[in-house]
Amino acid sequence: MRRALYPLYEQRMLRTMPANVPQHVGIMLDGNRRWAKAVGRDTAHGHRAGAANIEPLLGWCDDVGIEVVTLWLLSTDNLDGRDPKEVAAILEIITDAVDSLADQRRWRLNPVGALDLLPASVAERLKYAAERTSDVEGMLVNVAVPYGGRQEIADAVRSLLQEHAAKGTSLEELAGLIDVEHIADHLYTRGQPDPDLVIRTSGEQRLGGFLLWQSAKSEFYFCEAYWPDFRRVDFLRAIRAYTQRERRLGA
């Protein structure tokens, strides 16, 4: 009975959703491995189930009018901390999912992360998906693979230093110029609004390095469901919770 009533409940939530929905939502798609273990399947099955839930999620985001979504699909830590065969399988699942999204041409895909740490063939497939959707006017979807917040900040500072070295700026001059905006201009998400809301599935209540710089003033929502079990009603509850909060923007 509950399952049959959920569509009606979801439609009511959509009709009554306030106008102040987040412009940018960051989502930590967590729990694929634990979900697979819970259902008695191997890890790859969990990641395939998680990948299959990405397209529905983006449709839900479209439904409420979100403009930017950042999906954390793989951490930089995972490249060193897991079996190479498992990592290779995960990367193949991710790139297949990204290729499928690009084929639809509904969303503008933008790979963000330390692409130089990936196998060249994987990095090229992600870049090609971005090229194929660069003229799409739909929602911007940042695909964070492999991503680490500390790595991003280090890369931003490195890029800033290289830019000014090419201009001949001295270290003394740069020390007098550098500020928050200069670093922000070299982040993977430069030019984009910071996330208003960050959602993490699987019951974990920590950032784990996701959008460390950009989330300074974000709202957070933690959901108990593992990512493959994350439903439209869970998403709508997260958005509704955001609209009901009084944002103090970091104060």
TrEMBL record:
What are its cofactors?
Answer: Mg(2+)
Which keywords belong to this entry? Magnesium, Metal-binding, Transferase
Q: Where is substrate annotated to bind?
A: G31, N32, R33, R34, W35, H47, S75, T76, D77, R82, R200
Q: Where are the transmembrane segments?
A: none
Cofactor info, note text: Binds 2 magnesium ions per subunit.
Q: Which Pfam families match?
A: Prenyltransf
Assembly notes: Homodimer.
Name the family.
Belongs to the UPP synthase family. Z-FPP synthase subfamily.
Q: What protein name applies here?
A: Isoprenyl transferase
